[in-house]
From TrEMBL, chain A:
Family (UniProt): Belongs to the binding-protein-dependent transport system permease family.
Species name: Deinococcus rufus
Keywords: Cell membrane, Membrane, Transmembrane, Transmembrane helix, Transport
Positions of transmembrane segments: 12-30, 100-123, 135-159, 193-212, 247-271, 291-319
Main location: membrane
Compartments, record wording: Cell membrane
CDD domains: TM_PBP2 (cd06261)
Domain ABC transmembrane type-1: 96-312
Membrane topology field: Multi-pass membrane protein
Keyword DNA-binding found: no
SUPFAM superfamilies (UniProt xref): MetI-like
Name of the featured protein: ABC transporter permease
Domain of life: Bacteria
Organism phylogeny: Bacteria, Thermotogati, Deinococcota, Deinococci, Deinococcales
TrEMBL record, chain B:
Organism of derivation: Deinococcus rufus
Native organism taxonomy: Bacteria, Thermotogati, Deinococcota, Deinococci, Deinococcales
Family to which this protein belongs: Belongs to the bacterial solute-binding protein 5 family.
Record-linked Pfam families: SBP_bac_5 (PF00496)
Highest taxon of the lineage: Bacteria
Signal sequence annotation: 1-18
Protein name: ABC transporter substrate-binding protein
Solute-binding protein family domain ranges (all copies): 82-478
CDD domains associated with the record: PBP2_NikA_DppA_OppA_like_4 (cd08500)
Keyword field: Signal, Transport
Length: 326, 587
């Protein structure tokens, strides 16, 4: 196991280096820089623009900017965000934490929906229930999550107008959050998280449900399951212990992607629900060409992707004894 | 009699202990006679706050700007635009031919942490803003035509400003917010610019933030909400006309929303106290909510013009295409283009009827200047395709080809490319209308919306061969004292968009005249004389038509009826906005 991990670490160095070059230069391909909008301000003189450009290091050639950035990063310094004039990590860290809460709840709900529904579909293949679930899932599969979010928001507004039930529409906390005690604070945040997490889980579950259903069906018709049944194991054991455990292998392989997904936020759902996660901030950073913020964040996600993949390799070995890590 | 006595006493007392600043009763349409106190004004902003540091902040809506509200040596009276002493104890003593201002500051003013506000705070603030390593957005406001202004401490309660030249905007320049010397001065002396930049990032505990103005930060949740509470020290030297401490409100909060649609939704749901309607659609939604009884709010459309401009500029530095350069430099061509601009259609179609036609760089909100220019005979080349045709015929464009486009003797079509920033739907419509009308007149306009950053790069490019034909864009910002752009009018400046050669020299005598008039007006202290100089500038600009001004949008006001204390209707406009938050109260 240890040689495997060491090998992974060594392999990741050139990968990261190449990724960092790509990240930095692809960002540079976009026209203009952080100061471009300022050039249209009648109140800012050329002298001032030159000062700022020098302050941000924008007056240097791109390769010099890259080397400087890379050098600092090796020392754990991701550079300063132009907009915030603060270290990149200080800026993105609170946002990442917010996103992680949302994504964790989403993942729990995602598996809590996808696994039972997928197993149900396989066990009751072609029943009315299976077909009904399939229709609904097909429908959801084609729905972008942000669009579903908008519909849900509209629904909540209607509900509020009719019944006065106060379901939070956006944000992560209520106006009176600061005056709540610890337990109330947790409940308050949960109240804000549940709708976006549920919307995301429902739209995404469709895909996984179908994978699980297919895998289960395949395994259920395998010889060893028939043998197990013939030996008289209960239906429950046959499904959950023998079939499900074997059907789950491709899902475990995908777990590696969860780690970077957790910090990359919940995408447009965060925007629609005005959730203070990483996505809205990243979009602003792209809009304002906040170079080091975008580059720093992308590097962190790349690192997590590499770590996540190593983790899922290890998990695979745990689930499937045929795969050996070494 | 009692009033006179109080006034006399107040005047006598100035040297010993300064009297507070009294907000004129005329600044509010609704007196807070019941002395209602407390409550929260719920505002919104569409982008997350980036810093609490007043020296590195560059946002339009920012925490330092909000905290510092109401703190400045002078403030402009919305009734007559005059500057009146605010943190200053009285009018400035002017000497050295109008270039030196000695200002006594009100005694007894305190920062939110209880420290006294003194001359040091102004001097330190000035020093940090003008250090180019800090990168302050206010850097330029301390320079006059590239020459620095200096700020000096005479004694604890006296500051001296020395201007390199006479300046009409001197009072605005001096009215910057003083930040605490005991925080920033100390950091600057020990750590220089870097020391200042490190202070007051988003991670700083609100309790450490110190404010001279109306508000002080009480909590901030990134991407969600900022809550500011009333600075108690502010009420010591700011009173309403009945002697009550200001502000009345206990809290001012910003909800950070994804975009203006989200803000509108929150306003309609009664979760915000004010909203800035953009267009007819917004107004209709708000009106429907009010009529339907779902929202108790005040709504007034077309309160005043916006303080911004939309225009088309032609590139005079096009060495790669001498024929086009000659064309763009010909005043008859540009006048023809102004005749082609169907501004009425632009107002109706692109602005939904909510706006006005514009012909000058001065924003229509600055009505005094516009009136002065028009009465001095500044020309307006209004929509008239026949007149445009005549001018183009003088340029040799008399024949049309089979497609209906004008051609010169060599058979070359009269055409140019017009760009604007993609995604700005209003500008895309303005450009489309212009191109359609141009086609009627036989001019082929290749209208192409492009990326904003690329566009700005083209517009601000310098040299003999700049990379565009014509650009449709807008500007905003500026004041109502001298309403011409210091970066726009003089030759060689950044946004002198039509002519920007390497040496920055003027190409025509009118440009020279405009440059001269700009500095002359900037240095004229007498309002009437300054308006007259502005009128001459507008006349030169109108005749030259270097930039074709198109239309301007309107400013609309709406706010929840639970809040009171707004300006009287006649004082509300896009420059002063709808209220002074010091006088705002929750009913």
């Amino acid at each position: 196991m240890i040689p495997f991990l060491l090998r992974r670490v060594v392999q990741s160095i050139p990968t990261l280096l190449l990724a960092s070059v790509l990240i930095f230069f692809v960002i540079q391909l976009a026209p203009g820089d952080f100061l471009t909008p300022a050039r249209l301000n009648p109140g800012i003189s050329e002298q001032q623009l030159a000062n700022l450009s020098q302050n941000f290091g924008l007056d240097r050639p791109v390769w010099q900017q890259y080397l400087l950035w890379m050098g600092n990063m090796l020392r754990g310094d991701f550079g300063l965000s132009f907009q915030y004039t603060q270290p990149v990590l200080d800026v993105i860290w609170p946002r990442i934490v917010n996103s992680v809460w949302l994504v964790l709840l989403y993942i729990v709900l995602f598996y809590a929906i996808a696994i039972p529904v997928g197993v149900f579909g396989a066990v009751k293949q072609n029943s009315v229930g299976d077909k009904a679930v399939n229709v609904v899932l097909y429908f959801l599969l084609g729905f972008p999550s942000f669009f579903l979010s908008l519909i849900v928001i509209y629904g909540i507004l209607l509900l509020r107008n009719k019944t006065n039930i106060d379901i939070p529409l956006n944000g992560m906390t209520s106006d009176n959050f600061d005056s709540l005690n610890a337990v109330q604070k947790v409940l308050d945040v949960l109240k804000h998280l549940i709708i976006p997490a549920l919307v995301l889980a429902v739209t995404d579950a469709a895909g996984l449900t179908r994978v699980i259903r297919g895998q289960m069906l395949e395994v259920m018709h395998a010889d060893y399951i028939r043998t197990a049944r013939a030996k008289g194991v209960s239906e429950r054991t046959a499904i959950w212990k023998h079939t499900f455990r074997n059907a789950i292998v491709p899902i475990v392989a995908g777990i590696g992607g969860l780690l970077p997904a957790a910090v990359s936020g919940a995408g447009f759902a965060e925007v629609v629900f005005a959730y203070p996660g990483i996505t809205p901030m990243l979009l602003t950073a792209i809009n304002t060409s906040d170079l080091y913020l975008i580059a720093g964040f992308t590097v962190i996600v790349t690192i997590l992707l590499i770590v996540g993949n190593a983790l899922s390799d290890i998990l695979l070995a745990v689930v499937d004894p045929r795969i050996k890590v070494g | 009699m009692k009033k006179a006595l109080t006034l006399a006493l107040a005047l006598m007392g100035t040297s010993a202990f300064a009297a507070p600043f009294v907000y004129p009763a005329a600044w509010t349409a609704e007196q807070n006679t019941a002395n209602k106190r407390g409550g929260e004004f719920r505002d919104y902003t569409i982008s997350d706050f980036k810093t609490f540091n007043p020296f590195t902040s560059a946002e339009a809506t920012s925490i330092p700007l909000t905290m510092g509200a109401g703190a400045g040596l002078f403030t402009q009276d919305p009734r007559n635009d005059e500057f009146i002493p605010k943190m200053a104890d009285g009018p400035a003593t002017v000497s050295n031919n109008g270039k030196r201002f000695v200002v006594k500051i009100r005694q007894g003013m305190k920062f939110s942490d209880g420290q006294e506000i003194t001359a040091d705070d102004w001097v330190t603030t000035f020093k940090i803003h003008t250090d180019d390593k800090v990168g302050s957005n206010s850097y330029d406001s301390f320079f006059l035509n590239d020459k620095p202004i200096t700020v000096k401490k005479i004694n604890t309660y006296t500051v001296q400003f020395d201007f390199p030249a006479v300046s009409a905007t001197a009072y605005a320049t001096m009215s910057y917010t003083p930040w605490p010397d005991h925080v920033f001065g100390a950091a600057y002396r020990s750590g220089g610019a870097e020391g200042v930049k490190k202070l007051w990032g988003l991670g700083t505990a609100p309790a450490q933030i110190v404010s001279p103005g109306m508000w002080v930060l009480s909590s901030y949740r990134a991407g969600e909400r900022a809550v500011l509470s009333a600075n108690k020290s502010y009420g010591d030297w700011n009173k309403d006309s009945r002697g009550q401490a200001l502000p009345y409100l206990a809290t001012y909060s910003y909800r950070i929303v994804a975009d203006l649609n989200a803000a509108l939704a929150a306003y309609l749901a009664g979760q915000l106290d004010a909203y800035g309607p953009r267009n007819a659609d917004d107004l209709a939604q708000i009106k429907r909510a009010i009529d339907g009884g779902n929202l108790k709010a005040y709504l007034k459309a077309n309160v005043s013009p916006q303080a911004s401009s939309q225009w088309i500029t032609f590139n005079w530095n096009k060495a790669s295409d001498p024929a086009k350069q000659k064309l763009f430099r010909d005043v008859r061509f540009r006048r023809a283009m102004s005749h082609i601009a169907n501004r009425q259609a632009m107002v109706q179609l692109a602005l939904g009827g909510l706006g006005q036609e514009t012909y000058f760089s001065t924003y229509p909100i600055f009505k005094n200047q516009i009136d002065a220019g028009l009465s001095a005979g500044a020309p307006q080349y209004k929509y008239d395709l026949a007149a445009a045709g005549k001018l183009l015929a003088q340029l040799g464009y008399t024949k049309k080809n089979s497609d209906g486009y004008l051609v010169d003797k060599a058979g070359k079509v009269l055409e140019f490319t017009l760009s604007t920033n993609a995604g700005n739907t209003t500008r895309e419509q303005l450009g489309r209308i212009f191109a359609d009308e141009a086609k009627k007149a036989g001019v082929k306009v290749n209208f192409t919306p492009i990326d904003f950053n690329t566009l700005v790069g083209q517009l601000t490019a310098k040299g003999e061969n700049r990379p565009f034909d014509a650009i449709l864009l807008g500007l905003s910002g500026g004041d109502n004292i001298w309403s011409f752009g210091s970066n726009v009018v003089p030759c060689g400046t950044n946004l002198h968009s039509y002519n920007n050669p390497t040496d920055g020299k003027c190409a025509t005598s009118q440009e020279q005249l405009m440059t001269k008039l700009f500095y002359q007006g900037d240095a004229e202290l007498n309002t009437a004389k300054r308006l007259a100089i502005g009128a001459q500038l507008m006349k030169a600009e109108g005749e030259l038509q270097p930039v074709i001004y198109l239309v301007g949008g309107s400013y609309h006001v709406t706010y929840n009826e639970r809040v009171g204390g707004e300006y009287p209707t006649n004082l509300q406009n896009s420059y002063y906005l709808s209220r002074d938050t010091a006088l705002t109260f929750v009913k």
